[in-house]
C-alpha cells in the first residue's frame, strides 16, 4: 500500500525533470520522451529549422518524425515508422544506455530501432540540414536519417543507388539502367512514367551509361544527377529552405519555403499533367481534365473501392460470359487511350476487322482504333487510360461488354471522389454500339506486340529498333516465330544445349547472326489463348540478371520459346565440375554471382507486373555470360503449364530434389518463399563449391537438412567459415562476405515465415559488397 504513491511520485518527478528542460540539439544516452508529451520535440536543430519527435499521423497514432519547425502545417521530411504508427498512450522514445535510438509501443515492444549499440558515450543529434545522426564516442557518424529517406530529399542529402523516395505506390529511384525514374509500383503493375517512357531518355538530356547513380540537391536549389538530369528551382539561390518530395499523387515537386507566410511554393515539378501519372485512376478507368483531373470508370465498370481510386474499377458484369457474336457489344470512348499492354497490332485494317480481332479473343477487353491510318490495337489490360483533349487525332477505344451489361449507369468522379456525371453519352450517335454479326476465323497474330505495361509506344510510329539497355529493350517486338523458321534456325533441332523439367533446349541462329537458345516446351498447355496470355508475362519480364526472351512459337502441340544465348555455361559446371584452374570461380566472381542471382529473383518476386515464382532455382538454371554476369533461366514456366495446375501440383515437374523447400511436401501454399529456400541452398553451394544434397557426415551418412542447419549454426557461432569454404580456393576469399552468405543461407533454409525476402537478401549482400562504404566488410 505504501509503495504505490511512492512510485507515482517518482515517475512524475522524472517527467517533471525532463519537461522543464527545453529541447536540445544533441542528447546523450539515457534520454527519453513519452508520447504523451508529443508537443515537445525530442531534439531541435541548432537554428531551430528542424524538429525531431513524435508526430501525430492520425487519431491517436504517432510516428517518430523529423519536420520543419516553422511551417503553418507540419511538414514531415522523414519518418522512422510511418507504416506502423504507435499508440498515443504509453509509447516511448529512448536513446538507450547502449546507444541505440529505440521506439517502443505501449506494451514495451520495440517498433523501431536504430540498432547502433555504440555504448554510453554515443550521442544523438539533429543537424541544421535536417539530418538526424548518431555518433560514437569518437564523434564519428555511425547512423544517419539521410541514409534512409522516406518521401523527401533535403538539400545535401545524397540519393544513391540503393535509396528510393516512396509515397504509397509511387517511388523515385535509379533504375537498373542507371536512369532516375518515377515508377508506379502497384499490386498488379509496375510502370515507369517519368521521364515519359514513350520517348527515348536521350531526348530528355539523360544518359544511361553513368553507373555511379547519384543525385543531390545543393543549397542553391540545383539538383544534379549522374544520368544528366538537371533541375533548377525557379527561385534558385542561397538562403532558402527547400525539399524535393514525391507527393501522394505520384508527382515529384521541388518546394521552397516562404518564410513570411510559412508555407510552401512549388518551384519545379516533374508532372505538370497529372493524367500522365500512371495508376492515378487505377485499372479500367480513365483520367481526363475538366479542367481539373478527374477519374471515371469505363462503362460497365464500377469503382473497386469507393475510397480509393488507385484500386481502379472492376466489371459489373460476369466476366465469363459466352463471347459469341450475339452476346457482345462495344462501347466507343472517343479520344481515349490506354497505357495498358497490347496483345496485337495491325495497321490499315477496317474498324469491323479490328472489332473482329478483339471479339475473337476472350482475353481482349477492348480495342483502340485510329481512323485514317486504320491502326488497330487489341488490349488485354486497361491501365492508365487518358482522354486526350486534342481533336486532331481521331482515335477511339472500344470497350467490350456483354450485351446484357447495364451501361446507363456510368460512374464518374473527381479525383477527390466527388460523384459527378459528365460522361457524354451520345444517345443519338449510331456508332455508339457495335454489335457483332459474325465471327470470322482468324489465325494467330503475326505480331505479338508486347510492351511492358510500363512502356507503351503505340502512339509512336517509329518504335526504336536498337537495343538499348533497360526499359528501352522491352520495346523490342516480342516476336512470334513460325515452326518452320525455328526448325531452320536450329538445323532441325540438331545441337542440344541442355534439358530440364520444362523441355529441351537447342542452339539456333537467327538471321544468320544472332545466336539463340530455343526451348521446346514439354507438356505446355495447348489452348492458344492461355498460352499467349502466359507468354505475354514472360515477354514483359526484363532484367539484366534474367535471360531475355525474344519470342515464341505456338503451332498446335509445338510450343517453343526463343531466348538469348548465354555463352558461358551454367553455374553447376563451374562449381562442381571445375578441373584444376579451368572453370574455377574466384571469390569475387562467386560473390557477384550470388548478388546477381538475388537481384534477378528479387525482380521476379517484387518488381514484375505479376509475382513470378521461379519454382526451380538451382545452379543449372543460373547461366553465366562471358563476363560471369548472372542470367537466370527457366522462369515464368510454372505458369505456362496447364492453368489448373498450381505450382504445388507441378512439383514433380518443376522443383528439383535438393533445392525444394519442405513446404512442397507439406501441402502448404507455394509462394516466393520456396525460391528463397532454394536460393539459400545455392548460396551455400557457391560458398562450399559442393552439392549440399550430397553432403555426408564423417561416418559417410547422408546429412539431412536439420543436420546441415545445425552444422551451419556452429560455423556461425564459432565465427569461422574457413572449414566450409571451397578448399579449391586455397583460402583466397573474403571472410566477412563468406560469413554473411552463410548467415543468409541459414535464414533462407529456416522456417518459412522467417525467411527473408529476396529484396532483403539483395540489400544485405550489397551492404557487404560495397567496398568503399563498408570497409569493415572487406579485409
Ligand atoms: C558520372 O556521374 C558522376 C556524378 O554526377 C560524375 O562525377 C562523373 O564524372 C560521371 N562519370 C562520367 C563518366 O560521366
Ligand atoms: C460463370 O460464373 C458463374 C458464377 O460466377 C457460374 O455460375 C457460371 O456457370 C459460369 N459460366 C460459365 C459459362 O462458365
Ligand atoms: C493483322 O496483321 C497481321 C500481320 O501483322 C496479318 O497477318 C493479319 O492478317 C492482319 N489481320 C487483319 C484482320 O488484317
Ligand atoms: C441500370 O442502372 C440504372 C442506374 O443504376 C438503373 O436505374 C436501372 O434500373 C438499371 N437497369 C437495369 C436493366 O438493370
Ligand atoms: C508430360 O506428360 C506426360 C503424361 O502426361 C508424362 O508422362 C511426361 O513425363 C511429362 N513430361 C515431362 C517432361 O514432365
Ligand atoms: C568461359 O569462361 C572461361 C573462363 O573461365 C573462358 O576461358 C572461356 O573462354 C569462356 N567461355 C566462353 C564460351 O565464353
Automatic annotation (TrEMBL):
Membrane-related topology note: Single-pass type I membrane protein
Residues covered by the Bulb-type lectin domain: 18-147
Subcellular localization: Membrane
Superkingdom of source: Eukaryota
GO biological process assignments: recognition of pollen; response to other organism
Record-linked InterPro entries: Bulb-type_lectin_dom, Bulb-type_lectin_dom_sf, Kinase-like_dom_sf, Pan_app, Prot_kinase_dom, Protein_kinase_ATP_BS, S_locus_glycoprot_dom, Ser/Thr_kinase_AS
EC number: 2.7.11.1
Coiled coil: none
UniProt cross-references to Pfam families, sorted A to Z: B_lectin (PF01453), Pkinase (PF00069), S_locus_glycop (PF00954)
Protein name listed in UniProt: Receptor-like serine/threonine-protein kinase
Organism placement in taxonomy: Eukaryota, Viridiplantae, Streptophyta, Embryophyta, Tracheophyta
Amino acid at each position: 500500500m505504501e509503495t504505490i504513491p511512492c512510485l507515482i511520485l517518482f515517475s512524475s518527478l522524472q517527467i517533471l525533470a525532463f519537461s522543464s528542460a527545453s529541447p536540445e540539439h544533441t542528447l546523450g544516452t539515457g534520454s527519453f520522451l513519452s508520447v504523451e508529451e508529443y508537443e515537445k520535440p525530442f531534439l531541435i536543430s541548432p537554428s531551430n529549422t528542424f524538429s525531431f519527435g513524435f508526430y501525430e499521423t492520425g487519431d491517436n497514432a504517432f510516428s517518430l518524425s523529423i519536420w520543419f519547425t516553422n511551417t503553418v502545417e507540419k511538414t514531415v521530411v522523414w519518418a522512422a515508422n510511418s507504416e506502423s504508427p504507435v499508440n498515443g498512450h504509453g509509447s516511448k522514445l529512448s536513446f538507450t544506455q547502449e546507444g541505440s535510438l529505440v521506439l517502443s509501443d505501449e506494451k514495451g515492444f520495440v517498433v523501431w530501432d536504430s540498432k547502433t549499440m555504440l555504448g554510453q558515450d554515443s550521442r544523438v543529434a539533429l543537424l541544421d540540414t535536417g539530418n538526424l545522426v548518431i555518433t560514437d564516442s569518437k564523434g564519428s557518424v555511425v547512423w544517419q536519417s539521410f541514409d534512409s529517406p522516406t518521401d523527401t530529399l533535403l538539400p545535401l542529402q545524397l540519393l544513391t543507388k540503393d535509396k528510393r523516395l516512396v509515397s504509397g505506390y509511387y517511388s523515385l529511384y535509379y533504375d537498373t539502367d542507371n536512369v532516375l525514374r518515377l515508377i508506379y509500383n502497384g499490386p498488379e503493375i509496375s510502370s515507369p512514367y517519368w521521364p515519359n517512357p514513350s520517348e527515348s531518355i536521350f531526348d530528355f538530356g539523360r544518359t544511361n551509361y553513368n553507373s555511379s547513380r547519384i543525385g543531390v540537391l545543393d543549397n542553391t536549389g540545383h539538383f544534379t544527377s549522374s544520368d544528366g538530369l538537371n533541375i533548377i528551382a525557379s527561385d534558385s539561390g542561397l538562403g532558402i529552405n527547400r525539399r524535393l518530395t514525391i507527393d501522394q499523387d505520384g508527382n515529384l515537386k521541388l518546394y521552397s519555403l516562404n518564410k513570411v507566410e510559412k508555407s510552401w511554393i512549388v518551384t519545379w515539378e516533374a508532372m505538370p499533367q497529372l493524367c500522365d501519372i500512371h495508376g492515378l485512376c487505377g485499372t479500367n478507368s480513365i483520367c481526363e481534365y475538366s479542367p481539373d483531373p478527374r477519374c471515371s470508370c469505363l462503362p460497365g465498370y464500377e469503382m473497386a473501392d469507393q475510397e480509393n481510386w488507385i484500386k481502379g474499377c472492376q466489371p459489373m458484369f460476369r466476366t465469363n460470359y459466352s463471347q459469341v457474336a450475339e452476346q457482345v457489344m462495344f462501347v466507343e470512348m472517343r479520344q481515349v487511350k490506354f497505357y495498358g499492354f497490347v496483345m496485337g497490332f495491325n495497321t490499315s485494317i477496317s474498324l469491323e476487322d479490328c472489332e473482329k480481332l478483339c471479339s475473337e479473343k476472350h482475353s481482349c477487353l477492348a480495342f483502340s482504333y485510329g481512323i485514317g491510318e486504320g491502326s488497330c490495337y487489341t488490349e488485354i489490360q486497361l491501365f492508365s487510360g487518358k482522354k486526350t483533349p486534342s481533336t486532331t487525332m481521331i482515335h477511339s477505344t472500344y470497350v467490350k461488354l456483354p450485351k446484357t451489361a447495364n451501361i446507363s449507369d456510368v460512374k464518374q468522379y473527381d479525383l477527390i471522389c466527388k460523384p459527378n456525371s459528365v460522361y457524354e453519352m451520345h444517345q443519338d450517335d449510331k456508332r455508339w454500339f457495335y454489335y457483332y454479326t459474325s465471327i470470322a476465323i482468324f489465325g494467330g497474330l503475326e505480331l505479338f506486340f508486347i510492351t511492358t505495361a510500363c512502356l507503351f509506344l503505340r502512339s509512336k510510329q517509329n518504335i526504336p529498333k536498337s537495343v538499348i539497355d533497360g526499359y528501352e529493350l522491352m520495346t523490342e517486338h516480342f516476336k512470334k516465330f513460325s515452326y518452320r523458321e525455328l526448325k531452320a534456325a536450329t538445323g532441325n533441332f540438331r545441337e542440344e544445349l541442355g534439358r530440364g523439367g520444362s523441355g529441351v533446349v537447342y542452339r539456333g541462329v537467327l538471321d544468320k547472326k544472332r545466336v539463340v537458345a530455343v526451348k521446346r516446351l514439354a507438356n505446355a498447355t495447348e489452348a492458344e489463348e492461355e498460352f499467349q496470355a502466359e507468354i505475354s508475362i514472360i515477354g514483359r519480364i526484363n532484367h539484366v540478371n534474367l535471360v531475355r526472351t525474344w519470342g515464341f512459337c505456338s503451332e498446335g502441340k509445338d510450343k517453343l520459346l526463343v531466348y538469348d544465348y548465354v555463352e558461358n555455361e551454367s553455374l553447376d559446371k563451374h562449381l562442381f565440375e571445375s578441373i584444376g584452374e579451368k572453370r574455377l570461380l574466384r571469390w569475387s566472381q562467386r560473390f557477384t554471382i550470388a548478388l546477381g542471382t538475388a537481384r534477378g529473383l528479387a525482380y521476379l518476386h517484387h518488381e514484375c507486373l505479376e509475382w513470378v515464382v521461379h519454382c526451380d532455382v538451382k545452379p543449372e538454371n543460373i547461366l553465366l555470360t562471358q563476363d560471369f554476369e548472372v542470367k537466370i533461366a527457366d522462369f515464368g514456366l510454372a505458369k505456362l503449364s496447364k492453368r489448373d495446375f498450381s505450382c504445388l501440383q507441378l512439383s514433380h515437374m518443376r522443383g528439383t530434389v535438393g533445392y525444394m523447400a519442405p513446404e512442397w511436401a507439406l501441402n502448404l501454399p507455394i509462394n516466393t518463399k520456396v525460391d528463397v529456400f532454394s536460393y539459400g541452398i545455392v548460396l551455400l553451394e557457391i560458398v562450399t563449391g559442393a552439392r549440399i544434397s550430397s553432403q555426408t557426415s564423417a561416418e559417410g551418412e547422408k546429412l539431412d537438412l536439420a543436420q546441415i542447419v545445425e552444422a551451419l549454426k556452429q560455423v556461425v557461432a564459432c565465427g569461422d567459415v574457413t572449414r566450409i569454404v571451397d578448399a579449391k580456393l586455397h583460402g583466397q576469399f573474403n571472410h566477412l562476405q563468406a560469413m554473411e552468405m552463410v548467415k543468409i543461407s541459414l535464414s533462407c533454409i529456416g522456417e518459412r515465415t522467417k525467411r527473408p525476402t529476396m529484396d532483403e537478401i539483395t540489400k544485405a549482400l550489397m551492404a557487404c559488397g560495397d567496398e568503399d562504404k563498408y570497409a569493415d566488410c572487406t579485409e
